Amino acid sequence: MGLREDLERFREVGEERRQDLAEFIQYGDLGGSGPDSVRVPIKLVDLPEFQYDKLDRGGVGQGDAEPGDQVGEPEDGDGDGDEAGDESGDHEYYEMDPEEFAQELDDRLGLDLDPKGKKVVEETEGAFNDTARRGPRGTLDFAHLYKQGLKRKIAMDFDEDYVAEALRVRDWGVDEVFEWAREQNVPVSRAWLAERERSVDDPDHWASIEEMEAELDAEPTQARIRRGGAGKVPLRREDERFRHPKMVERRERNVVVVNIRDVSGSMREAKRELVERTFTPLDWYLTGKYDNAEFVYIAHDADAWEVERSEFFGIRSGGGTRISTAYDLAEEVLDDYPFSEWNRYVFAAGDGENSHDDTEENVIPLMRDIDANLHAYVETQPTDGVQTGTHAGKLRDAFGEGDGVAVTTVTEPGDVMDAIETILSTEDNDET
């Protein structure tokens, strides 16, 4: 292996040593990524290089100069030299789009959310797979018509010579042969038997029907068709079917995500960071799963208001807490995103504190009224804090499994992956 191959191999090893996805979500720098590009740090390895042996001062290429002495005259470079570079090396990060991120997170958590499209954005003619009883003659499905006629012919067919032979049984006439044929499930009519009886010779040829059956065998219908062909196949108008193209609907997979965060005075930096580490990967994941994803960010203390994403995780107020105000605003916002056309998620986070009776009297009824694929509440309670909130516990009591509501508690970054798994695995895929 040459030096060039060595260098490429070391670069590949570096990329393979990309920071583990769970480690990145829980402890990495999420701020370096954007809405459409997730930048995961690479644990670089040192590339091989040659170094001089400084223990030996002699040898070719070494002289008596001291460190720092100028060697030769300086020369002008190709650039102007006025500014230093301001871009980081691409090799320091592995960049993935949200689709790749979502796939890797599915693989990591053993999930596979399969969102359904709701809004019809295009209707086109597909293959001629549908049929109707009426239509232009040029679209007649003759193969279907012939097949139905052939089925009818086979169902009504019988060995005429064999049945006619029963008319030669001693003392048997049309009535006796007709009853015998019916017992044998032979679809023969009295009129046909009466017609054949006129041409029967030697009417006492067989002493009994048992003697005839012992001497003769009826030829199966399939054998007669193979030998002589299908012959005349009865075609009936009632069997006609006319082919037309199946209309194919393309449904766009749209999603709106409402992220709600408590920004009251009790939500200090450690709690805010836990919210960011939980909500940001969820945003990437849903962006990767849907054709069109829109996000709404609502901050609240005792009142609620919309904010930009850049403000959402850092804002802090000094007011109290009334969570229902955020759900009131979320319900108003979601009026622009009909549930019949949009998949909807409502994610809220806080430290579990809420004003007296607001959870039972307002928040829980609002969560039941707001149609969504999934409601989730993330309680952030760092281990070094005193837990005083009761909101999460009341939600757990109100919503059982299968209600499309996920409630989880995050006490440290190491809990984030479990919280994300709880949220995503709670969704009912029948509603997506």
Write a structural description:
By secondary structure, the protein is an alpha/beta fold. It has three domains: 1-47 and 90-95, no CATH class; 137-244, no CATH class; 251-431, Rossmann fold (3-Layer(aba) Sandwich), CATH 3.40.50. It has helices spanning 3-16, 21-27, 98-109, 142-156, 160-165, 174-183, 190-197, 209-215, 221-228, 269-289, 309-312, 324-334, 358-369, 391-398, 416-426, and strands at 38-41, 93-96, 119-125, 130-132, 242-244, 247-252, 254-262, 292-300, 304-307, 343-350, 374-380, 405-410. The strands form four sheets. Strands 9-8-7-10-11-12 form a six-stranded mixed beta sheet, sandwiched between helices. The protein starts with a helix and ends in a 6-residue tail after the last helix.
Low-confidence stretches: 81-91
Strand order of the largest sheet: 9-8-7-10-11-12
Mean pLDDT: 82
Question: How many DSSP H or I helices?
Answer: 15
* End-to-end CA span: 53 Å
Q: How many domains make up the coordinates? A: 3
CATH superfamily of the largest domain: von Willebrand factor, type A domain
The fraction of residues in strands falls at 15-25%
Top CATH class of the largest domain: Alpha Beta
- What is the CATH topology classification name of the largest domain? Rossmann fold
Structural class: alpha/beta
Largest sheet: 6 strands, mixed
Which range best describes the helical content: under 10%, 10-25%, 25-40%, 40-55%, 55-70% or over 70%?
A: 25-40%
Query: What is the H/E order?
Result: HHEEHEEHHHHHHEEEHEEHHEHEHEH
CATH architecture tag of the largest domain = 3-Layer(aba) Sandwich
Q: State Rg.
A: 41 Å
Shape: elongated
Record field, number of beta strands: 12
Pfam families: DUF444 (PF04285)
InterPro entries: UPF0229, vWFA_dom_sf
